Amino acid sequence: MKAKAVVEVVVVFSLTLCLIALVGLSPIGEWERQAMNNFFIEYAVMIAVPLLILLVTRRDLAAYGLSLHNPRYHLNIAATAFVPWCSASSRQRSSITKKLLRLT
Amino acid sequence: MIIAIVQIAVLFAVGWLLRRKTTMNESGLMVGAILLDQQIKSHSAGRRGECDLCLHLLLLLSWVRRGALFRGYIQSRLNAAWGRPYQFFGVNWGWGIVIMSLLFGLMHFINLGSLAMGNWQLEPWWGFWTIFAGLVLGFVPRENRQYCRIDYFARASGRAIPCLFRSLTEGTRSVFECVVALLLPAAPQSRSQTVFLSEAMLPQLLLML
């Protein structure tokens, strides 16, 4: 059971990365970057693969986080966790790193 | 290395702050995902001159994708199989979060973005510190007591509020910019740079209220 879960996860992860790479290297990916300067299709692939797996295997989406229930509670938790997370946001980190690099 | 240490500190801080929160056996991925926004991408994308609507779409996809794959599928699947026998600040966790974080780091190490751009470069340090970021993101949603999934809120809410506020004020211009961007993809679009402090402070003020 445990080994099966790990194998399944690794396969899905590898499959997702391969698909992203294929899309990114394909003419569609090239057009996308030229037209929009972004990776919308690759992102969509990354969402679609796990969703497809969940739908095909008929698993409960709510158990995998796909739920809109009880937003107030989640907002409460998130607002609490936001403070330390924001404190270590990338922008701050990058500025700290730059300052440190300058000092060294 | 510094960022990794910061992430570990954040993990402890989040654990300490959430230690008294009640337990709920529910998930809220999509709720948080809707309230998207990512400060880093907001600023970096803004510098590239994208319209707001495109930016929001990018941010939505950006958040949902990570959540759907890593915190949604991988961590949930592994937790279901391996269980969560350990505790951190009273919160159960298991090998699922560790493996998910390693895969999260591996994805950043591989750096598929650069591969698609045609100059593939492995990013070992990016991969290293994102392992710890994965631990934080995995801890907040999934390991917070039972099955509450709030990583999106944790990361997104603080960014979404100023983003939504900005959207309201710049809504008209955003639609116009997006139309222009779709019609003339190559035309440079101007986009005002928001001040980081205001973005960071507004949600905290709301939190205090």
Quote the beta fraction of chain B: under 5%
Mean pLDDT across residues of chain B: 61
Q: Determine the N-to-C terminus distance of chain B.
A: 36 Å
Q: Oligomerization state of this entry?
A: heterodimer
How many DSSP E strands of chain B? Answer: 2
Shape of chain B: globular
What level of helicity do the residues of chain A show?
over 70%
Q: Which range best describes the helical content of chain B: under 10%, 10-25%, 25-40%, 40-55%, 55-70% or over 70%? A: over 70%
- Total number of beta strands of chain A: 0
Name the chain pair with the biggest interface and residue counts per chain.
A-B, 68 and 79 residues
| Structural Rg of chain B | 18 Å
Percent range for β-strand residues of chain A: under 5%
**How many helices of chain B?**
9
Rough outline of chain A: extended
Question: For the residues shown, what is the average pLDDT of chain A?
Answer: 75
Low-confidence stretches of chain A: none
Structural class of chain B: mainly alpha
How many strands, which pairing sense, and closed or not: the largest β-sheet of chain B?
2 strands, antiparallel
The gist of it:
Chain A is mainly α. Chain A has helices at residues 2-25, 27-36, 40-56, 71-87, 90-103. A two-stranded antiparallel ribbon of chain B has the order 1-2.
Describe the structure.
The complex is a heterodimer of chains A (104) and B (209). With 104 residues, chain A is mainly alpha-helical. Chain A has five helices and no strands. Chain A has helices spanning 2-25, 27-36, 40-56, 71-87, 90-103. Chain A is extended and about 45 Å long. The mean pLDDT of chain A is 75. In chain B, strand 1 and strand 2 (91-93) form a beta hairpin. Chain B has 209 residues and is an all-alpha fold. The two termini of chain B are 36 Å apart. Chain B has helices at residues 2-17, 29-34, 39-48, 52-82, 95-110, 112-117, 124-142, 151-183, 196-208; strands spanning 86-88, 91-93. Chain B has a two-stranded antiparallel sheet with strand order 1-2. Residues 25-49 and 142-209 of chain B have low confidence and may be disordered. At the A-B interface, helix 1, helix 2, helix 3, helix 4 and helix 5 of A face helix 1, helix 2, helix 3, helix 4 and helix 5 of B.
